[in-house]
Design brief:
single chain; 220 residues; alpha+beta; BirA Bifunctional Protein, domain 2; seven-stranded mixed sheet; 4 helices; 28% strand
Length: 220
């Protein structure tokens, strides 16, 4: 798999480039992994509801064809876009999503952080009270806290066209988190969003991108 480091790239041209790459793919086209960060932008998924975009202000909003609801991308966030031929690799879509999530979990583990999945809410979450705890989530869901005191550190959204993937995963490293307060992140009112720096992990964007890229290549 070829890894392409795009640096800081505008969202819309990157999105359009992923679409063009996927449309032009041939059966033998090598898979690629694009790593980058974006200037501030809100993106809406196909299921996105306008009511979840509370107060975008001066940050642009881009409609996309990925799954899911609204999310935010900005500096200090690693964007990982695997461009994978699922049919050639023999992966079902659910298996592919699991591999994406597992790559993020393994990346967090590299920094000593325990990542958690939440059934029905794609992405990776960490305990707000103790991000380094290895204890499993337990107990019934509380109707006023379906996330059991978790904060979201990684969002996922994918598109599959002709058995080939684009869009991907976002990992929050060192961000200005204020724009997440202008939306219901991924469609969940009150869901807290965190990054590595706010939970006490000091690292660089380059290091986080390197580790996440290695984990994705190893699993995909």
């Amino acid at each position: 798999m070829q890894i392409r480091q795009l640096g800081r790239a505008q969202y819309l041209p990157t999105y359009e480039a992923m679409q063009a790459f996927t449309a032009a793919r041939q059966p033998e086209t090598p898979d690629e992994l694009w790593l980058c960060e974006h200037p501030p932008v809100f993106t809406q998924g196909l299921a996105g509801q306008a009511g979840h975009l509370l107060a975008p202000g001066d940050i642009p909003v881009v409609q996309t064809n990925r799954g899911g609801q609204v999310t935010y991308h900005g500096p200090g966030q690693v964007m990982a876009y695997p461009l994978i031929n699922l049919q050639r690799r023999g992966y079902f879509i659910k298996e592919y999503v699991y591999k994406l999530e597992e790559s993020v979990i393994r990346c967090l583990a590299h920094f000593g952080v325990t990542g958690h999945r939440v059934t029905g809410a794609p992405g990776i979450y960490v305990r707000l009270d103790d991000p380094f705890s290895h204890a499993a989530l337990a107990g019934p869901l509380h109707p006023q806290d379906p996330f059991r005191g978790l904060g979201k550190i990684s969002a996922l959204g994918i598109k599959v066209s002709r058995h080939c993937t684009y869009h991907g995963a976002a990992l929050n490293v060192t961000m200005d988190l204020e724009p997440f307060e202008r939306i219901n992140p991924c469609g969940y009112a009150g869901l807290e969003t965190v990054d590595l720096s706010t939970i006490g992990v000091q690292t660089t964007w380059d290091e986080a991108a390197r580790v996440l890229g290695e984990q994705l290549v190893a699993r995909l």
